[in-house]
């Protein structure tokens, strides 16, 4: 029912008419789904193995080495030639295409790390002997997830604050605007650097700190839209019908404000990803060892003699950001009334 | 002698599109005013724009002949057309605010075309501009020169537009709905000016309008247009007194007429206000200067009986819409509002007002902005039921909506469609259905017919009368159109600057208006009828 709505249909048509943005969306969605299953693509454990005619799923479950006739009670290290040999004797193993996880160190390197691209490490290894491609895949996932959660959370807060300010106006609006002016003048980067000196910034800590300052982007847009729409005739008619205020805001005004919001979202997502990358690059981001694009770039800078580090980091980041920009442009086209009201 | 001749003009947008203008032939005689009359979408504006070559490039214009004083316009090059526009043919547009450049002073607006067409120097242009401003009767032309469009009133802007059109002594003036955006009394002034200029300068005027009253009073010739064709043409007296084409008769019959049934003083009073006031911009803050508040509604007392209609008449800015919002308790006001026997003015907040909301409803002027484009018609109409009768099941609701649609004369499949699929008149019916589904006792109608064509207006008025009879509804009917008000109201209030100038039974006021402003309003609205003695 909802998607039969002509307004949405026209917008979808306009979005599709932007071929570049449309394809970017599909590529992005494909990459996103693939990254969500990063463990199945790049892992130091086999996806499936058969040992003495029984099936094991090492990716999903942890098996001690003794299961396969080894000596230790600890988890089996399938990359160990001894363990691998035991299993191969009594069955078989199916490996993911990349036999490294983001933290797996390749001890069999023939050259000192960082090692250049080879048949085993397609994009080479970093200075600790970890596979670059595996780290990019996991880093990609982390960046996107971080960006998405931050974007959604800050948009929800921003829309709620903007809606209340715009709808009620007057003193509510005035107080909100002044608070935002004061709050937005705080230097975020320095605050994070200071904070990271007394808490270890985990994924959620970083998210929370960034959220404290990123919710303001949308407030002005949504506020302006609510200020405009609260005097529309159909909003007045709804008030005259006695429709409760929250429902008026939700059903009659919010869809108008969502136009501005959705147009902005891909760009906010971009901004969030870039901020996380920046923090990782300068070393105040995620805890050491986490796979991240910023950390890869940092390594590239520290190891200029190993250009595959910098180039891989740059290309993957630039590709991700470009995709999002293209999608953003298509969304903007979709909501442009001059395009779809013709 | 024919100044401007059009023969068999056909215009279409795109190769396979149906023609917007279909074989139109017109002849504008020297020194006469020809009114091209038609409803919206009849192709009258497109016809006018094609004369000046102002249509967008995808328009395909074909004609056997398009001549200005024996000169073939169709054969003109782009530069030839530019010489024509603003040179030998002047044009006045409908909306003076958007037709004037907001960043230029009056002197520059008019001087520009003088410099382009006649190559006048600044001083010469200034002298000519002053002369033109005198000619269009603008007060204090010297100070007007330095004004920007936003500093002028609507009527003054339209006079500046006319001065611009006259700057290069054109022989033909095309006026495209020149007064539609203006108040009735201002309208009369502008049309009077056009008529006077026509006589003084020997102009031929092509007046495009939808208003037959205007035609009757000012034009010598009439051409009636319907769906891209000329259905009837002739002198005004001839066409109006003895219309030959059925469509012309239909248009004439659609002029609002009839009177409401006689009021019954024994009916109970439904709504009463005492000294109702709405003041804006009253500063009470600690650090703000005390300003004089804007008195949008300033002490209105009115009384409306059950089953009757109270007309509120006034020009734009007179406070009539604000009065409606105050009575509906959608904005803050002071003074008393009594509904039946209960006082509404002390109630605060949604919760206290909720039970009353169902008993008084509203229909707004613009049917395009009063329906949420993202909801189906069914959802729009059922919204009130969802709020006020929560225990109603979905199927019961749908049943109610179906019944309501039938009542306002719309087919049942309407409810699954979206507002943009409907015409203005149908949308106004939807708005009425939304208001009536809660079975209110009072309906506030804020210019419900102003955005509609005459014949659609007529149908909506009929519907309103019919509903009033059936349910003994009370209407507060706000309008600037005296003909419409006369056709539906029992009582009348004339408002200006937030105050009531005159109040009483409608017919009495029309027969014997005491205030001179009321007299001016009535003269402006009914002059056409008086001239030709035809009953519209």
Short summary:
The complex is a heterodimer of chains A (342) and B (536). Chain A is mainly alpha-helical.
Architecture overview:
- Chain A: InterPro entries: MetI-like, MetI-like_sf.
- Chain A is mainly alpha-helical and 342 residues long.
- Chain A folds into two domains: 2-39 and 134-340, MetI-like (MetI-like fold); 44-95, no CATH class.
- Chain A is built from 14 helices and three strands.
- Chain A has a three-stranded antiparallel β-sheet with strand order 2-1-3.
- In chain A, helix 5 (132-168) runs antiparallel to helix 11 (245-282).
- Chain A starts with 5 loop residues before the first helix and ends with a helix.
- The model of chain B has no long low-confidence stretch (mean pLDDT 85).
- Chain B has 20 helices and 21 strands.
- Chain B is an alpha/beta fold.
- Chain B folds into two domains: 2-253, Rossmann fold; 268-359 and 442-451 and 481-536, 3-Layer(aba) Sandwich (Rossmann fold).
- Chain B has a six-stranded mixed β-sheet, sandwiched between helices.
- In chain B, helix 4 runs parallel beside helix 7 and helix 16 runs parallel beside helix 17 (454-471).
């Amino acid at each position: 029912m909802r998607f039969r709505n002509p307004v949405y249909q026209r917008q979808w048509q306009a979005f599709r008419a932007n071929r570049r943005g449309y394809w970017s969306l599909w590529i992005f969605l494909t990459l996103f789904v693939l990254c969500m299953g990063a463990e199945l693509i790049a892992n130091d454990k086999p996806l499936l193995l058969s040992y003495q005619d029984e099936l094991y799923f090492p990716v999903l479950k942890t098996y001690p080495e003794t299961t396969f006739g080894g000596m230790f009670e600890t988890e089996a290290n399938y990359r160990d030639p001894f363990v691998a040999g035991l299993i191969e004797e009594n069955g078989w193993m199916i490996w993911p295409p990349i036999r490294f996880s983001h933290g797996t160190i390749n001890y069999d390197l023939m050259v000192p790390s960082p090692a250049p691209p080879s048949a085993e490490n397609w994009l080479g290894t970093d200075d600790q002997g970890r596979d670059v491609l595996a780290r990019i895949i996991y880093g990609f996932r982390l960046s996107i997830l971080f960006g998405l959660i931050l974007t959604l959370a800050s948009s929800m807060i921003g829309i709620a604050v903007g809606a209340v300010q715009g709808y009620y106006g007057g003193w509510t609006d005035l107080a909100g605007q002044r608070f935002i002016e004061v709050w937005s003048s705080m230097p975020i980067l320095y605050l994070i650097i200071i904070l990271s000196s007394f808490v270890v910034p985990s994924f959620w800590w970083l998210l929370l700190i960034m959220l404290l300052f990123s919710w303001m982007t949308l407030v002005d847009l949504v506020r302006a839209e609510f200020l405009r729409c609260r005097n529309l005739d159909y909003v007045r008619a709804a008030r005259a019908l006695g429709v409760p205020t929250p429902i008026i805001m939700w059903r009659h005004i919010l869809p108008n404000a969502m136009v501005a919001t959705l147009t902005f979202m891909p760009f906010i997502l971009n901004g969030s990803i870039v901020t996380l990358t920046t923090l990782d690059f300068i070393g105040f981001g995620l805890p050491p060892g986490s796979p991240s694009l910023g950390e890869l770039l940092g390594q590239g800078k520290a190891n200029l003699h190993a250009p595959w580090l910098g180039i891989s980091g740059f290309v993957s980041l630039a590709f991700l950001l470009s995709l999002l920009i293209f999608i953003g442009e298509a969304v903007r086209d979709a909501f442009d009334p001059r395009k779809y009201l013709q | 002698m024919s100044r401007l001749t059009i023969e068999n003009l056909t215009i279409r947008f795109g190769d396979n599109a149906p023609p917007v203008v279909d074989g139109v032939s017109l002849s504008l005689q020297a020194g006469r005013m020809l009114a091209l009359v038609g409803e919206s979408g009849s192709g009258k504006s497109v016809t006018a724009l094609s004369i000046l070559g102002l249509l967008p490039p995808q328009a395909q214009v074909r004609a056997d002949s398009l001549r200005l004083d024996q000169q073939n316009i169709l054969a003109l090059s782009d530069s030839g057309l530019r010489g024509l526009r603003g040179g030998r043919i002047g044009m006045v547009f409908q909306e003076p605010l958007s037709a004037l450049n907001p960043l230029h002073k009056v002197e520059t607006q008019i001087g520009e075309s003088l410099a382009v067409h006649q190559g006048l120097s600044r001083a010469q242009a200034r002298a000519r501009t002053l002369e033109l401003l005198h000619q269009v009767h603008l007060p204090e032309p010297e100070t007007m020169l330095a004004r920007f469009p936003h500093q002028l009133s609507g009527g003054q802007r339209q006079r500046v537009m006319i001065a611009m059109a006259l700057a290069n002594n054109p022989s033909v003036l095309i006026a495209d709905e020149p007064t539609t955006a203006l108040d009735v009394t201002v309208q009369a002034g502008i049309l009077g000016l056009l008529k006077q200029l026509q006589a003084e300068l020997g102009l031929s005027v092509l007046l495009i309008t939808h208003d037959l009253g205007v035609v009757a009073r000012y034009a010598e010739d009439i051409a009636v247009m319907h769906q891209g064709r000329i259905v009837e043409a002739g002198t005004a007296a001839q066409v109006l007194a003895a219309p030959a084409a059925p469509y012309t008769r239909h248009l004439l019959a659609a002029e609002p007429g009839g009177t409401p049934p006689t009021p019954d003083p024994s009916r109970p009073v439904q709504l009463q206000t005492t000294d109702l006031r709405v003041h804006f911009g009253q500063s009470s803050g600690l650090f703000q200067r005390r300003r004089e508040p804007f008195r949008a509604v300033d002490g209105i007392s009115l009384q409306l009986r059950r089953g009757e209609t109270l007309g509120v008449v006034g020009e734009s800015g007179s406070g009539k819409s604000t009065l409606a919002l105050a009575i509906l308790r959608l904005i803050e006001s002071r003074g008393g509002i009594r509904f039946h026997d209960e006082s509404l003015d002390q109630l605060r907040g949604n919760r206290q007002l909720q039970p009353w909301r169902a008993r008084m409803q509203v229909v707004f002027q613009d049917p395009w902005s009063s329906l949420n484009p993202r909801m189906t018609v069914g959802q729009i109409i059922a919204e009130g039921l969802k709020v006020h009768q929560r225990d109603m099941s979905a199927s019961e609701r749908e049943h109610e909506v179906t019944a309501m649609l039938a009542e306002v004369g719309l087919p049942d499949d309407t409810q699954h469609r979206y507002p943009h699929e409907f015409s203005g008149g149908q949308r106004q019916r939807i708005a009425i259905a939304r208001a009536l589904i809660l079975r209110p006792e009072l309906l506030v109608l804020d210019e419900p017919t102003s955005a509609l064509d005459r014949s659609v207006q007529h149908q909506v008025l009929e519907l309103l009368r019919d509903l009033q009879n059936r349910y003994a509804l009370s209407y507060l009917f706000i309008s600037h159109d005296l003909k419409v008000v006369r056709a539906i109201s029992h009582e009348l209030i004339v408002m200006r600057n937030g105050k009531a100038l005159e109040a009483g039974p409608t017919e009495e006021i029309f027969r014997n208006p005491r205030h001179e402003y009321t007299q001016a309003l009535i003269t402006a609205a009914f002059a056409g009828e008086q001239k030709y003695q035809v009953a519209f």
